[in-house]
Amino acid sequence: MAAVVALSSQIAVPVGAQTQRGKASFYSKRATGSRTSSGERLHHDSLTCAHRTYPFGTLLKVTNESNGKSVIVRVTDRGPHSRGRIIDLSHGAARKLGIINQGVAMVKIERYHKSHIPYLPEKEEAPEFEFEVTEYTLPESGVLHFPKHGKQYKQYVKTVDDDDK
Description:
Structural class: alpha+beta
């Protein structure tokens, strides 16, 4: 009976409030092109992962505890299927965390609540410019002279006056 109570208290904790610590591994580059559990195709440069419980599409912040590097990944697969591991990362995510040479690393996983896509930078707002429109009158010859370059350009301009309408 005590085991059931302890189990139910773990389930009552919302998934978003959990921070997990454990071992992470990564997919081989040879897995590129294979389908994940969500139906997407895996690419080794993508920032995706496999997790046992988080819903597909959930963003997770994964931090390598040995060097402090972190990356934001999206859950696209179920796993890992190896005992003692809590997450399988794509090759690109493992490279950003610096665990390629190790193979397995201790990581911290937190749910990431920002709504932007992890592998695209946020758009910066463009500054506002005020444009002033000025009139320009061509010389009667219709030829513009650019003394710096010594070239002449002919332009044919039709002049329309508001009075002609």
